[in-house]
Amino acid sequence: MPAIAIAALVAILPLFFPSGYYYRIGVLVLIFSLAVVGLNLLMGFAGQVSLGHAGFLGIGAYSVAIGPVHLGLPSWLSLLAGALLSGGIAFLVGRPILRLKGHYLAVATLGLGLLLAIVLTNEARWTGGPDGMSVPKLELFGWSVRGATAWYWVAGVTFVCGFVLALNLMDSPTGRALQAIHDSEIAARVLGIDVARKKLAIFVISAMYASVAGSFLALFNGYITPDAAGFLRSIELVAMVVLGGMGSIVGSLVGACVLVVLPQALTVFHDYEQALLGLVVMVFMIFLRQGIVPSIAGALAGRRK
Amino acid sequence: MILEAEQLSVSFGGVRAIDEVSLSIAAGQVFSIIGPNGSGKTTLFNLISGIYTPSHGCVRFAGETVTGLEPDRLARRGLSRTFQNLQIFSRMSVLENVMVGHHRHEDTGILADLLHWPSVRRQNAATREVALAALARVGLADDARRASGALAYGALKRLEIARALASDPKLLLLDEPAAGCNPVETQEVDRVIRSLVKDGITVMLVEHDMRLVMNISDRVLVLARGRTLAEGTPEQVRANPAVIEAYLGDHGSKEAARAFG
Fold it and tell me: CA-CA distance, A6 to A253, in Å (whole number)?
């Protein structure tokens, strides 16, 4: 049901777009939502924080730049290769660092993100260094995807797929095990759940979501700089998860929407834009502390009683 | 013997929390561990269920040596437990809590889970059946849809039992299932344990409610300061002077009177 509702929303929303500019914002919301859904699987469901997820976003972004430019691969293949590379790195790094808990895990993933960003900055021969590099257009079956309208539909379909996969996972043995790990690792273990393996699996999946989102972002913008993999980007993703609601897949869309749209809406305040953004986020968190979607859903359920 | 422990010992910061405790439990028994607070009952549970690794001694479960095995491995061999301080999955519904208990029997891959293949649908339905049956056994069938946080304390204790039952254990370790329960709820726990034994599940019990322990147990082990003070049938233990003294010394005559009167 939520899957159909979201698909319908994505399909109908452009009818209300007054200009092409809104398509552009829509694409950014959809792309970020995809990354945030993946991070929410890790944070909201399995309860494992990652402050380095932009690193995987960066891998995805640079793979669709480096693949076609340096290796002559088609963009779509580069995108898949990037996702596999991100998954592979998450698999190798996740083993040692997912033993850590809470703040220690946060700092370790922070380190991972910084490391990936520095590699992307320093390997200038491949990545163009701090100046970044341009990204060739995506070609799908001879169709060159260009313009915000076309991208809206590509990103929309991909987001709905990512959304449905996430919902599926939560309503499955793996999903139940992950939620159990979040609440009590010790109880999960005595019920036969291999906690380390489940955490690793969701870390890998989550990294691949971020990677695909990063590829789309790079292909859509046509340009990529190491900022895409930077610390601030990681924080932004975490803020989207928490603001929308930990453990709420619909919340991921709402969180991404607020943090993409709000800065655009606040540009009229010029110099105070960032300060106001911070203030709005703070107020949201104070009054809707479980995140926007769970708090509102809880209030509605309470009223019904 | 479904469970045998030989000379189990573990130390924390130089203190021997468990000191050369041996026990053996025949299949189908109710085996209780009693003792004053701090005597090491829960520590012994943690050693047997793999949460702590013993510094000495060995544990054999269903004939195989399992010393130092991780709790999830033990669980997959059929050893499950509940916790003294509740370990409920508080974000999940009552039914979902118990569904997690069935995890070790669930047979789907992560790719199938992501795609929601028919095998996953079948598994979900089968798991739900098992969970509902387990809830019915502990008298919580009507609460299946509720948020687990909405249940009363005594009901949560039984929820943990249902969750452990859903894993279809051979040996079930219950850590103070009647603690904080009113007399009616304690009666319910008594009834549940008897029904488990009827189904061939061996029960190991840590409990302070002496009436429950003496009523239901086949064997009782008394711990004091991490050592075995006495072991035997409830009658033997009740008559043992060392046991009475341990309780009088540590706990006051009131509990002794309630326990052995």
Answer: 9
A182 touching chain B per CB within 8 A: yes
Nearest CA in chain A to B96: A176
* Selection from A241, A246, A242, A249 nearest residue A171 by Cα: A249
Q: Per-domain residue ranges for chain B? A: 1-78+169-261, 92-168
The ipTM of this complex is: 0.89
Going from N- to C-terminal start, the domains of chain A cover 2-230
User: Looking at the complex, does the CB of residue A271 fall below 8 Å from at least one CB of chain B?
Assistant: no
The closest CB to that of B72, out of A168, A176, A194, belongs to: A194
- Asked if A154 and A145 touch (Cβ cutoff 8 Å), the reply is yes
Alpha carbon A62 to its chain centroid, in Å, reads 16
Q: What is the pLDDT along chain A (305 residues), one digit of tens a residue?
A: 778 999 999 999 988 888 888 999 999 999 999 999 999 999 999 999 999 999 999 999 999 999 999 998 999 999 999 999 999 999 999 999 999 998 999 999 999 999 999 999 999 888 888 888 999 888 787 778 788 889 999 999 999 999 999 999 999 999 999 999 999 999 999 999 999 999 999 999 999 999 999 999 999 999 999 988 999 999 999 999 999 999 999 999 999 999 999 988 888 888 888 888 889 888 988 999 889 999 998 888 877 65
B92 alpha-carbon distance from chain centroid:
22
Q: Do A191 and B120 touch (CB under 8 A)?
A: no
A176, A186, A194: residue with CB nearest B100: A176
Residues 95-124 of A with CB under 8 A from B: none
User: Cβ contact (<8 Å) for B100 and A186?
Assistant: no
- Taking the C-alpha atoms of residue B8 and residue B104, their distance in angstroms, rounded to an integer, is 28
Q: Does domain B1-78+169-261 have CATH number 2.120.10.30?
A: no
Does A58 contact chain B (CB < 8 Å)?
A: no
**What's B81's DSSP letter?**
E
A vs B: CB pairs below 8 A: 109
